[in-house]
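Hello,

Following up on my earlier ticket. Below are the two sequence lines again, exactly as submitted.
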Amino acid sequence: MTDKKLIFNGVTGRQEEIDFTAEEQTIRDAKVKAWNDDSGDRKLADIKEIRLQKLKETDYYALQDVIMSNEMKAWRLNLRNIPQDYTTEEEYDLLLARDENGNLTHSVWSKP
Amino acid sequence: MSSEIKADKWSPASGTSATIGDSGDTFTIPSGVTLDTSSSTLTLPSSAITGQTAITSLADTDKFLVSDASDSGNLKYVEKQYLGGGGSLVYLGGINSSNYSASKLALQQVFTNDYRRYKVMGKFQGTGNGADVEFRWLNSSNSEVISNYYNVSEGHKINSVDYNQEGWLDWGQSKTRLFVDTATGSHIHSFSMDLFPNQNENVNYPTMYAQLNYWLYNNAANKMFVGQLASYVESTTSIAGGGMQLESTSGLFGTVNISIWGYKDS
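Thanks for your patience. The regenerated structure is below:
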């Protein structure tokens, strides 16, 4: 399928919709392929962002005058191990799954 | 002439008001006659302005009536060329569409010698879930500038449960990632940007500053992003006569409304 671009040209003063040239389409197809190929990396970046948020929320347990339970230590360790424990895009999708209210559903996110 | 009235003073026959003539009559004051109302109150009809022919542009020598505060309020005129007033924005054109048909939006050949700075405002829907929207400059042949973009962005991601502040650098890139991880559906992404095609007129370095407000896909968490972005291109190649372009990394632009204005200094 040929992509299109919507243009306004300041010289003609007109709006037009025109097809990509063959050269533009080749570049576009390569870009879209690269974007799709990079999907797993983008999902992992999102997972790491969620993980960072979860770890920050429980950092105070590591203060000297607060006792961190073994369950909390294990949960935080599991979060840190996500990149090595989950490696496929299918697993990333499960980690990013949310219910109808927008809450993450994977058990790894459930704080003890 | 049937008769001529010669009197030194007209006064009402009774009371304090009188009428000259009837509807449809015309009284002419000939050339050379002075009708001096300088010490009286002169009431003009409301059609004195609206009854005239309208013009849609002003010449530098068009005149406005003013009361000169530095000369006892005497009436004088000032020409349009002396009004100043901080310049204006001149609408150049734009794109309006609801076709969901294009993966690129381009304002081509909009930079002219008439303006040194430009304002672009717009909004759009669509593209693919999680897609980025990339900004690039176009040269006068409508070719994309595809190297040496230096970008800095910062802002906040917000929804009802999370609030994150973030910023990033994209150094030496082939584009500016203007919108990152956009949501689709009914979500509207909006922006306002200032363009400086020749930031330093000796070496060009086109520069853009944008304020952004858009919805993040965020893996269906749908957060709002509010932030700003600055970008410059380390290039000594002039883009005079060129323009700018937005490109989605996946999906098509939906409802689009983008306009560009030139800044007129005075």
